[in-house]
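#lab-general

N.A. 3:47 PM
ok so I finally got the sequence cleaned up, no stray characters, all 158 residues accounted for. can someone with queue access submit it? mine expired

B.Y. 3:52 PM
send it over

N.A. 3:53 PM
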Amino acid sequence: MIRDYRHDDLPRLMDIGNRAWAPIYDMFSQAYGTDLFERIVSNRQTDKGDQIRNHCRQHPEWVYVCEESGEVVGFVTFRIDWENGVGAIGNNARDPECEIKGVGQHMYSAVLDRFREEGLTFAKVTTGMDAAHAPARKAYEAAGFDRSHQDVTYYCKL
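B.Y. 4:20 PM
back already:
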C-alpha cells in the first residue's frame, strides 16, 4: 500500500536509506579510493539518512511510503517543478531485507500518477551507470522511463 509520509516514519526511512545505499557507497569507495570517497561522503553510515531527513522536513508532502502489513518497506521522495512541468523522483529505496517484489513499481506508479494529477508533462530520475545502480535502472525502465542522457564526472588528485 502506498500512502503519504507521516513524521513518525522518518527514523525508518532514514534506516532503510542508509542500509540500501551501503552497496553503492562500497562501489564509490572502491572506484574513488578512500581519500576521495571520505571527502565526498562525510559519513557513509548516516549521509543518505541525513539527505532523506532534510527532504522530509522541507517537503513532507513530496514523500510517499510503501507499507505492507503495517510495516514500512520502502519510500520515494520527489519534487515538483510546476513552472517547467517536470517532476523529479529523488531518493528512494526498498528495505534491503524486504523480499516483496514490485515495491519500487508501486512507488514509481504512485509518483507518476501524482505528476499527472499536478498537470506535469515530464518526469525524470537520475541514477548511476555502475553495476551498483543496475537494479535501479531496471526498475526505472520498467516504470516507463525511456529517454536518457549519460554523463561522466572526472576527479583528479591535486
